[in-house]
Amino acid sequence: MTQKKKELPYLERDISWMYFNERILQEATRPHVPLLERMSFLGIYSNNLDEFYRVRMASQSRIAECTDRSAARESEHAKKVIKHIGKLNAQYAKAYSQAVADVTEALRRENICLVTDTELTPEQQDFIHDYYHSKLSGLIVPVWFSAIRMLDYENDADIYLAVKVTRREPKPAADYAFLELPVAQCGRFVRLPDHEGRSYLMYLDDVVRYCLPFIFEGLDFTGFEAYTFKFTRDAEMEIDNDLRTGMLQKISKGVKSRKRGEPLRVLYDASMPKDLLKRVLHKLDLDSLDTVLAGGRYQNHKDFMKFPDCGRADLRYPAWPPILKRELDGPSSLLSRIQERDRFIHVPYHSFDSFIRLLQEAAVSKEVTSIKMTLYRLAKESKVVRALIGAARNGKKVTVVIELLARFDEASNINWSKRMQEAGIKVIFGVEGLKVHSKLVHIGMKRGADVACISTGNFHEGNARTYTDCMLMTASRRLVKDVDSVFEFIERPYSPIRFKELLVSPNEMKNRFVALINNEIKNKKSGKPAYIRIKINHITDPVMVEKLYEASRAGVDVDLLVRGNCSLVTGVEGVSDHIRISGIIDRYLEHSRIFIFAAGGEERVFIGSADWMPRNLDNRVEVVTPVYDPRVKEEMKRVVDFGLRDTLQARMVDGQGKNLYCEPSEGEAPFRSQEALYEYYRSQEETNEETHNE
Q: Residue 307's pLDDT is what?
């Protein structure tokens, strides 16, 4: 833990992230979570950790390596963070291995059995022999360690087997190779024939181990050993304004010449012989700050997210089909209905199809003259883009702002950009120096009010099935005019544009939020209603952290739902006595951002795309909108209220990584917010249906 500004407690962002990922690991150990969902949480934990090391730990490592004297303080701090994270990683790795073993054993009791290459029956051996010749043959080409200088061609998204082969004649000898597992072509798990009511699965790792004599056929080797290893490369440096600009420049000059993409974490089978491990590590060329961690027989468990269900739907969460809101269904125009009053959807509880239908109507309607939209991440087969292309073909003036630097989606976004340009869409590639992270749509009309959509999440059909996000659909002139001004700002970022209603970063959003908190402090001192309730993904911005501490010291009750990074520390006497924070991990990923301020009894509610991190408030184009419609306000308040009441899936976020569950009061049943919300929305639509039929 580090101290910032007047010695106020401030938890380092990356340490906080480790605490968050441990909450996901906890979910994989809970008996009430269906077994195959527990397996999926193990995969999510592993995948998260890989990305964390690629990006955040890469940045910390580069800062730690800086040799410029003026950056010595930051360098030493980074070394401490790396050391702390290393300890947490080792601690969690043991818990992870135990969780994998527990879930695997529980699946066996449910007649889903993972078998190794040494446990095969004669019939299963025949199956694997046939599988090799029909599927694997030709996909695996071993590479001798002695033939390469470095492991610089290999991809860290893949899994490798380090192989030791031996022969006895004419004299004992050993040689060493590695090979890539063809997971992309074959999947990570091979399903063997069922037998006597049991399903049998095998890691591809073990299938390949069993097939090593076929792979090295004709080379006179008689002994074969193979052990998995994987590594994580430095993806790129990401500091996100954590350091002042001058220091960033010094670090980029003073840091050692470190090639982008160098390995910085290695996981390997602890039973790998020393002579083989020595060759693996030598070809990766690690340094003292990199992580080398002995693990179990298998690495790269992100594949657990796609673990075969073997037809056992009962081991998954029960289905919650997305609810199609009646007010957004039926033959009448959606544009007209939004012009009547504000509407909203909350995915994945509500169907994202309502938004797709709105875009499709706008693409075809002769009353629509223009569509402007920001896009951050896009589905592989995006219905959103298809609607936009259709609109352009129908003569609408279509403008799309697409963020080419959306991490890990760059290639997909570039491909879609070309297709949109070919269709006549004006494509704007963001703002130089600023990521465009806002989620906006503006629909221009010939007659009547223009329409806008402001969302907390991406316009992405895939995400809309698993991420909780709220979308406001409005024709409110004051909001729609500001949305149009955001697009003007993106096209002309240095023009003097002021926003009357919307909170827009990097312009005035942080100052507006500070003013809202200051107002709560003032009202508390004046005896007026004062409280702050926020649902958000991350809070790490030092200014916002300090303002929340200030509100707490003034006696303002601060209740926060924070899913991920959180630099606040609760329970510090005289600093955070009035701050309560919980984080929810459940079947859906909590993603919506909702801000509620008492405002002296005239409650103010906002939703939008921005977390309270330096990158969001200072270095991105983000938009947060006030919610004025009383019905929509009540719905947003309900989302936050249900989250704060959660006593089944919520953990206390205390800044110390304890991750204790929020227990129900004595005599009360556990409350699960996501389930309660789904049931509320479902019953609401059933009531609307009955009312309509009367």
A: 96
